[in-house]
Amino acid sequence: MRFQSPVATTPPVTPDGRITELHLWAVREGLRRAPAAAVFEDFCRRLAAAGVPLWRAFVGMRTLHPQWAGYTYTWWRDRDVVDPSPREHGEAYDQDLRESPYTYLRDTALGGGVPQRLRRRLAGSGARHDFAVLEQLAIAGGTDYLAELIPVGMATEAFPDSGLGFSFATDHPEGFSDDDLHLIEAVLPAVSLAIVSDAEHTMAAGLLAAYLGSDAGRRVHAGVVERGSVESIRAVLWYADIRGFTPIADATPGPVLVEMLDDIFETLAAPLRRHRGEVLKFLGDGMLASFAFVDATRDETCGHALNAATEAMHDLDRLNADRARIGKPVAVVDLALHLGEVLYGNVGAVDRLDFTVIGPAVNEVARIEKLCEPLGRRVLVSAELAAATRDRARLEPLGAHLLRGVREPKEIFALRL
């Protein structure tokens, strides 16, 4: 029995073939996963070249990211470039979305109303400015407006806006013609798929970076996913932990405790970003980070690690002062820095992996941190890192100390803050 492939549907064709040409172009761009901004910019230019009197165009989409709620791309004819803009989570974004034509289109469609399309004249006797953006465009010279919501995937309660919101405006005295609107609407599904092809790839990269760290996320996204695939690297290891966390947790309501942890972890992570450190993981009330280096960058990396630790402690002091002033719980953070060789890569079960560092150096930095409280210091540095640091005046020797599980005593230094 011969296999018969399904018959491909052909997009409607106008006499000049503009729809077919744009449709095939969009499919090719999606297959090669062209950047979303470049796809939208080229789409706008191609519409203009096809005779559409396009003046301004916009596309926006929700995303899955702990920091960014969505991305928008805006094209203006006089600039001829797309202006991409990430939008942070928060009331400002939520309000803009609630007051936009796209929420109206979504809610109307969910209620079984008209299709997800909105047309408004911006000038003349039939003008209607029932959304703030329409008033703004009319003042700027717009005459006609089309908005369309293209659903993508399955909407869920947690992610109801799983689609792309497009709008197109013109300043032509007669507005858009029927042929203009037919061309735009016929090609939008293919253009949406091309944009989503890149957006979902970018979304996956962003989520991996947020949950694994930028370097680990990049490696996993590039295909380094096989269990046991590790490499040996040299790094300055950073291990931070909240002192006396158990009694703090026992005396603090859960949401208040989580807020405090978020404040502390962000305060620790900020100088790591500035000094090229990588947060590898959060361990309850602790944090493991690293500064990878090669021989040529060792001295510079050690300096970055010490600077990041100093800035983190000063920032924590300010954070605690601010929190105490308004009656919120505060905490002391102890930090240890160590230099060593570790294995970096995928470790775990066949169906649940962790991209992490392992080796004796990881155990040692965690043991050094436990000496902070008995030694009365907030930042301790190993002898290995001290030997590699050019500015030894920043370090105060504290003698040799036993580390749990380590046979020989280790020289320990305090970082002068």
How much is the radius of gyration in Å?
A: 28 Å
Strand content: 25-35%
Decide which structural class fits the backbone: alpha+beta
Secondary-structure element sequence? HHEEEHHEHEEHHEHHEEHEEHHEHEE
Count of helix runs: 13
Mean pLDDT, to the nearest integer, reads 89
What's the count of strands? Answer: 14
What does this structure look like?
By secondary structure, the chain is of the alpha+beta class. The protein is 42% helix and 27% strand. The chain starts with 17 loop residues before the first helix and ends with a strand. Mean pLDDT is 89; it is low at 1-8 and 10-15.
Draw up the topology in text.
Layout: H1 18-31, H2 36-49, E1 56-62, E2 68-76, E3 82-88, H3 91-98, H4 101-110, E4 117-121, H5 132-140, E5 144-151, E6 163-170, H6 178-212, H7 214-221, E7 230-242, H8 245-251, H9 254-274, E8 278-283, E9 286-293, H10 298-325, E10 333-349, E11 352-358, H11 360-369, H12 372-375, E12 379-382, H13 383-388, E13 395-401, E14 410-415
Parallel strand pairs: 10-12
Antiparallel strand pairs: 1-2, 1-6, 2-3, 4-5, 5-6, 7-9, 7-10, 8-9, 10-11, 12-14, 13-14
